[in-house]
């Protein structure tokens, strides 16, 4: 009996020792991702910086080594949101867990934008131009670092960013955080989405980057390890590298992707998460929306194809997909017209709900949105000729005369220097357009070689026109 009791006690002690050893090997066993991350950061802060709590240095080194300034602002935001001073470099585990879980929760668009604007305003009620510029540069760098064809850069980024800052601030030095939030929602509604997706991704999977530097565990190979953003890819991009003043620099493609409806960026999901299975992959897919951006195909470049209504129509018609038309005038102005469907001649305005008119330079802003905002007429008599865009047919926002000499905005004419049209649809849209053009060329060649009999020539309208002009007709005998 006594031996049996001693055996039970020894067995319990062995189980207890085994449990302690397992916890020592992996202290985050059985925890949720945010709990794992918090515990590991506390351990690293104690080991490397001798700090009780989570230190800002460890937070930057392990989670955001490429973006230290963004990490500093995020850490300060977590501290101030939990009631601490902005100058503090330490946050407790409980406050870190509470604030990060709040950040990972589903937020309305306006609250999400307000949160990040406040973060870059250092928690104050007003934000200055430099702070807003830092926010824009941070999002731009994220987008370029995760560009589908590898990291990119653009020498025009500061000009692009300055156009956004000047448009938002109207020559003021500071703005209320609430005002700038509303401006972003109106003119760049998808700007913050890129930043938020990245931060959510890192916080949700960041414990792996800490574990990789610990001897006791390895990351889960089944979880996603990268984040793809949705900046469109420009086909034939080498065209820009050979031009002195490219019409569409990559930085402008990026800022457009924060404004344009999804119709123009066409994100295509890699795979749809299983609705009845809740796992890490599905959880991340819900927040991150892993996707591949669309490829914009160059349809018309006036510098290459020649400027004029005939050249425009020849290269643009029959492309049955959404398009973006860029108009550059003198004095550095640049406009963009987004059409939801193919270009067509009509005496009426056309376009779907996602039709959009923008100015990119020298100020970046949305001019008009909404249906029936596009107009093209080069041949119908009794109606205005040229291209028009805007919600009010009596007072269009953008006008291009039928000779393609001037572009007019708000009654101010600018000399039209160049025009480009990009197709934003699927590759099939471009293939169909090329097939139609090839068919038209073959039909024209066929008609040119068509031989007519004498009887057909007697009734042909061309014979009548020649006689009216005084030309003697050939004998039909």
How do the helices and strands line up, and which of them pair or pack?
Blueprint: H1 2-25, H2 33-49, E1 54-55, H3 56-63, H4 68-81, E2 90-91, H5 93-104, H6 109-120, E3 126-128, H7 129-145, H8 157-169, E4 174-176, H9 177-187, H10 191-205, H11 207-211, E5 233-234, H12 238-242, H13 250-257, H14 262-265, E6 268-269, H15 280-288, E7 291-292, E8 295-301, H16 302-305, H17 309-316, E9 323-329, E10 334-339, E11 356-361, E12 365-369, E13 374-377, E14 386-389, E15 398-400, E16 406-409, E17 412-423, H18 427-448, H19 454-458, H20 461-468
Parallel strand pairs: 5-8
Antiparallel strand pairs: 1-2, 3-4, 6-7, 8-17, 9-10, 9-17, 10-11, 11-12, 13-14, 14-15, 15-16, 16-17
Helix pairs in contact: 2-3, 2-5, 3-4, 6-9, 7-8, 7-10
Domain TLDc: 267-425
InterPro entries: TLDc_dom
Protein name: TLDc domain-containing protein
Write up this protein:
- It is a single chain.
- The chain has 477 residues and is an alpha+beta fold.
- The protein folds into three domains: 26-271 and 278-290, EF-hand (Recoverin, domain 1, Orthogonal Bundle), CATH 1.10.238.10; 295-425, no CATH class; 430-468.
- It is 46% helix and 16% strand.
- The chain has helices at 2-25, 33-49, 56-63, 68-81, 93-104, 109-120, 129-145, 157-169, 177-187, 191-205, 207-211, 238-242, 250-257, 262-265, 280-288, 302-305, 309-316, 427-448, 454-458, 461-468, and strands spanning 54-55, 90-91, 126-128, 174-176, 233-234, 268-269, 291-292, 295-301, 323-329, 334-339, 356-361, 365-369, 374-377, 386-389, 398-400, 406-409, 412-423.
- The strands form four sheets. Strands 5, 8, 9, 10, 11, 12, 13, 14, 15, 16 and 17 form an eleven-stranded mixed beta sheet that branches. Strands 1-2 form a two-stranded antiparallel sheet.
- The longest helix has 24 residues, at 2-25.
- It is elongated.
- The model is unreliable at 22-30, 215-226, 237-246 and 268-292 (pLDDT under 50).
């Amino acid at each position: 009996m006594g031996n049996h009791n001693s055996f039970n006690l020894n067995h319990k002690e062995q189980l207890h020792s085994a449990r302690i050893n397992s916890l020592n090997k992996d202290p985050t066993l059985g925890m949720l991702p945010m709990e794992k991350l918090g515990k590991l950061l506390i351990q690293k802060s104690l080991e490397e910086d001798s700090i009780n709590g989570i230190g800002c240095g460890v937070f930057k080194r392990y989670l955001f080594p490429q973006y230290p300034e963004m990490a500093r602002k995020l850490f300060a935001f977590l501290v101030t949101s939990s009631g601490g001073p902005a100058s503090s470099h330490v946050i407790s585990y409980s406050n870190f867990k509470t604030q990060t879980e709040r950040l990972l929760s589903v937020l309305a668009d306006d609250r999400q934008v307000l949160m990040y604007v406040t973060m870059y305003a250092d928690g104050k009620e007003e934000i200055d131009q430099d702070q807003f510029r830092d926010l824009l540069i941070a999002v731009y760098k994220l987008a370029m670092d995760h560009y589908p064809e590898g990291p990119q850069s653009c020498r025009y980024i500061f000009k692009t960013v300055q156009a956004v800052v000047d448009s938002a601030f109207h020559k003021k030095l500071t703005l209320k955080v609430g005002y700038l939030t509303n401006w972003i929602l109106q003119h760049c509604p998808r700007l913050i989405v890129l930043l938020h997706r990245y931060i959510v991704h890192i916080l949700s999977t960041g414990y792996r980057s800490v574990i990789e530097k610990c001897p006791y565990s390895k990351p889960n190979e089944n979880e996603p390890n990268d984040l793809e953003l949705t900046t469109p890819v420009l086909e034939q991009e080498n065209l820009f590298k050979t031009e002195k003043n490219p019409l569409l620099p990559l930085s402008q493609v990026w800022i457009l992707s924060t404004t344009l409806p999804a119709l123009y960026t066409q994100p295509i999901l890699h795979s749809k998460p299983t609705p009845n299975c809740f796992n890490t992959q599905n959880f991340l897919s819900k927040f991150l929306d892993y996707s591949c951006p669309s490829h914009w195909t160059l349809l018309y470049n006036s510098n290459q194809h020649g400027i004029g209504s005939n050249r425009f129509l020849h290269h643009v018609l029959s492309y049955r997909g959404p398009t973006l038309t860029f108009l550059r005038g003198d004095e550095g102005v640049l406009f963009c017209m987004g059409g939801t469907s193919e270009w067509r001649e009509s005496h009426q305005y056309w376009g779907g709900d996602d039709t959009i008119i923008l100015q990119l330079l020298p100020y970046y802003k949305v001019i008009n949105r909404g249906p029936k905002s596009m107009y093209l007429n080069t041949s119908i008599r009794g109606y205005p000729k040229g291209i028009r865009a805007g919600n009010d047919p009596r007072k269009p926002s953008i006008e291009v005369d039928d000779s393609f000499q001037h572009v007019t905005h708000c009654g101010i004419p600018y000399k039209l220097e160049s025009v480009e049209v990009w197709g934003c649809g699927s590759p099939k849209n471009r293939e169909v357009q090329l097939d139609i053009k090839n068919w038209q060329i073959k039909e024209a060649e066929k008609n040119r070689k068509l031989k007519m009999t004498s009887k057909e020539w007697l009734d042909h309208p061309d014979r009548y026109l020649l006689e009216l002009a005084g030309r003697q007709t050939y004998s039909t005998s």
